[in-house]
Here is the input.
Amino acid sequence: MLFSLGLAALAAVAVVVTTAAVVISQRDENTRTKADFEKYKVDASVEIASVRSEADTKIALARDEAQVAVGKANAEIAEATKAIAEARTETARALEEAAKAKERTVFLQKELDERKNRTVSREQREAVIARLKPLPKGKVWFNALFGDGEAIRFSDQIQAVLKEAGYEVEEVPQGERIMSVNRVGVLLFFKDVNNPPERAKNISTAFRLVGIEIFGDPQPDFTDPDKLVLVVSSHH
Here is the structure.
């Protein structure tokens, strides 16, 4: 019996020792697990900090590159805007020069037209004759500017029109030829501005209606109030 009790006591001691060993083993395991967890947290914190640092660096780099790109784009836009403004200025200048050139061309063409020989066209001739034939006639003296070939030729054309319309026409004597006139164009000399010969008004009106101006020019020194002299001066 005592032996049995002794065995039981030994068994109890063995259980206690085994239990204590298990508890100690679990505590050691728990201690190692906690240490590993703490180490993992430290390692993870370091890894996260490294990733964040790398990300911040990349973000800063991307931001710098974007700012550089924006600056370059703004510079290109400014350059393009300047080029457009310069092009508009050049276009405006070119248009202004073109307008001036056109104006000059019109002026030169007008001057050229004015310098061309004056003529009485067939249509003008027929219209003047048709208007004057039914009207009272009379004598018309002709006096073209001496030495001006163009004035002489135009005078001959007008003289031919009036002759065909029924007027008596005659050149003034050589000694009365006009050497210079202070007016240009075609003139009708007569004595009294308030009472010109009727044929003076008729002739002036007939030619004016076809675009040929003939201006009255009173000559108070004329002794004959019915005298009418058609003077052809220079063209310009």
The helical segments are 2-115, 122-132, 149-165, 198-208.
